[in-house]
Amino acid sequence: MKIFSLLVFLTVFYSIKIYSQSVPDLPIPISYASAEVWGDSIYFFGGSNDYNGTELYKRIYKYNGLSWSYYDSIPFNHVWSLETAIKGDTVFLYGGWSGGGGKLYSYRLSTKTWTQLAQGPSTFSNYGHTLEYYNGLLYAFYNGYAASYNPSLNSWTNLSTNANSVSFSASTILNGEIYTSGWSNSLFFKYIPATNQWIQLQDLPEFLSGGALRAIGNRIYLVGGSSGFSGGTSWNIYEYNPVTNQWVLSGQFSSKRAYMEDIIYQNKFYILGGVNENTAAVDIVEYIMDQTTDVETSSEIVSEFLLMQNYPNPFNPSTKIRYSIPSITLHTSSRAESRGEESQVTLKVYDVLGNEIATLVNEEKPAGVYEVDFNASQLSSGIYFYKLQAGSFTQTKKMTVLK
Predict the structure, then answer these.
(1) CA distances from 244 to 127, 239, 247, 342, 375 (A)
(2) DSSP label of 202
(3) What does each of the 403 residues of the chain score in pLDDT, given as a tens digit?
(4) Positive or negative: CA dihedral 219, 221, 227, 230
(5) Residue ranges per domain, the chain?
(6) In the CATH hierarchy, which fold is given to the domain comprising 306-401?
(7) Using CA atoms, how far apart are residues 193 and 139, in angstroms rounded to an integer?
(8) Shortest CA distance to 360 belongs to which of 171, 306, 25, 370?
(9) Rounded to whole angstroms, how far apart are CA atoms 215 and 130?
């Protein structure tokens, strides 16, 4: 019986690992690079073998869904800490060490065609900036300076400055607003393109630069980062809620890293490469979580019972589980209307042997969408199951604790 249980555990564990981690490691250790997704492929631009930019990689690697390959060469040297943004099959590449201050190029992935574009503002350095594409414009940020680039006009416009912003920032877009975090302090801001306005938000939980900042659903996640210019000092995953303006510790990933790249590929959030705590570049590609649509507990009309996959997964030590309770539709002679009635709901966690570990919900719930936090700090690494029961509805899903 023990041997059978072990075989079941290993089978489930490796099947989940393969399902979650679908992208293999990079061809070589790379840090301070950039990556974009187009179609069913990942394109990885530039970078170096360490945080000093000792060896510069003037190349583009491509992952086609099966393996990585050398896709094309980059015709300039400033590939350490260059930033990219993508529109259609056109990648914009900005800055980079050495000698890339303010330089902007476009690269057509379909034709492998390079074009040098208008020079950016002189206030921008070789490195330490961030770049986003939104609503027809590129937005660049560096050390408190901001500028936009209009591809149709091939021209730059200086934007409102932020005296408290810093270099080696990370950025992401959520609901038409650009969120930025940076180096040498723990400040966190959002820039509103519609009004050319900066708003200071809740400070980061700890000082981190070079982390991966990514909007997933209606949350923002900060993955890893460094407390100095070199090396990775964090393996924490922090979650920011724009509604409450609060950060919480969401989990941890496999090892301390900073200055890595982040992508959404086939609806999954990955981090690629970076430098470890010994300031050496790594080739690690790591799955963080599925891309989800974040839903607050609500009274909206829901058409079916549903137990959603927890996120992040794998996780350490905490994760979130969402489920929905449907409204009941009543048909009359003139119309159909939805009416919420309460259902007795239980949500429990079990180990691989079927032993009950925790009861997360055991009460009557009206129709709506709900989210529950589960903390596994007292559990060992492994596979666990969570089960939702509501009336005659039953559904079970797997989750992985990885410490």
Answers:
(1) 33, 12, 9, 28, 21
(2) P
(3) 444 444 444 444 343 343 445 899 999 999 999 999 998 899 999 999 988 889 999 999 999 999 999 999 999 999 999 999 999 899 999 999 999 999 999 999 999 999 999 999 988 888 888 999 998 999 999 888 899 999 999 999 999 998 776 666 789 998 889 999 875 678 899 999 999 999 999 999 988 888 999 998 889 999 999 887 666 789 999 999 998 999 999 888 999 999 999 999 988 899 999 999 888 999 999 999 887 533 344 444 456 788 888 888 888 888 889 888 886 543 333 333 334 456 789 999 999 999 998 888 888 888 888 888 888 878 888 999 999 998 888 999 999 998 7
(4) negative
(5) 22-290, 306-401
(6) Immunoglobulin-like (2.60.40)
(7) 9
(8) 370
(9) 15
Task: Specify the CATH architecture of the domain 22-290.
Answer: 6 Propeller (2.120)
Q: Is the dihedral of CA 244, 246, 250, 254 positive or negative?
A: positive
Give me the phi and psi of 245, to 5 degrees please.
55, 45
Tokens found for residue 312: 């992040």
Classify strands 113-116 and 177-181 as parallel, antiparallel or unpaired: unpaired
What is the rounded CA–CA span in Å between residue 241 and residue 54?
39
Question: Pick from 180, 224, 222: which is nearest to 199 by CA?
Answer: 180
Structure tokens at 108: 């057509």
Residue 244 CB: number of other CB atoms within 10 A? 9
